[in-house]
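Design review, sub-item: ligand-bound model
Attendees: FS, YL, KQ
YL presented the inputs for the magnesium ion complex:
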Amino acid sequence: MVRSRITGREGLLIRHSEEESSMKRITGIRAISFDADGTLWDFEKVMRHSLHCVLKELERIDPEAAHLLDIDKMIEVRERVAEEWKDKTANLEDLLFNRRQAFRETLKDIGRPDDTLASHLDEVYLHHRFEDIELFKDVLPTLNALRSRYTLGLLSNSISYPERCGLKDLFQFVVFSQDHGVAKPDSSLFQIALEKARCSKEQFLHVGDSLENDIIGAMNAGIRCVWLNRKQMKHNSEITIEHRIASLLELDKILG
Ligand SMILES: [Mg+2]
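KQ shared the predicted structure:
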């Protein structure tokens, strides 16, 4: 099994170097799955924007509470709660509970526990988290160019329904981790995608930005993959990545 040796926050700190660009051709593909957060849109950006909207709403309801918080503090609590609930999040209900719990803990942390307000703030967050997504500029041109030749799918650990994110009718299959009780990099989620795409491992390609979840996950499932490295970061020399691109627009070029 391939293991990652990435340290720190994934994508921000990657050790060692491997300078070669990887534009080898990929042939025989019939279906392509795409990761969502970080691959099709800037997750950090929409998450911060949504928390800003939550803070504005809190300021309207309880200005004193809002002044005790800022976006970084809210992110810190979300990360803490996500870590605490990591092994107990098996389905959509758990995931939604986990997210609501983050707002409960946030209000508790500032000495103003209020579960009703936490649920309301969570609703505000989720609304903006999906409705205000801005796709990377290369997403629609790429998907529109590929859709007539390949079966396209979404393979995600989040709950980003395509129709809520400006991607209606572009995917023929969708696999969300919480619907199956497993998450990437677990090989079984890739297996589910294969079944939904109705093709063999050899005919399947996965594209994603996370070395841990997308690349190592796909490699362990025996599936070919392309690392979308938008920020052109260096990667761990122990992982041999055959295909990597800096923009989705390069994908069409390497598909033979
Ligand atoms: Mg991602």
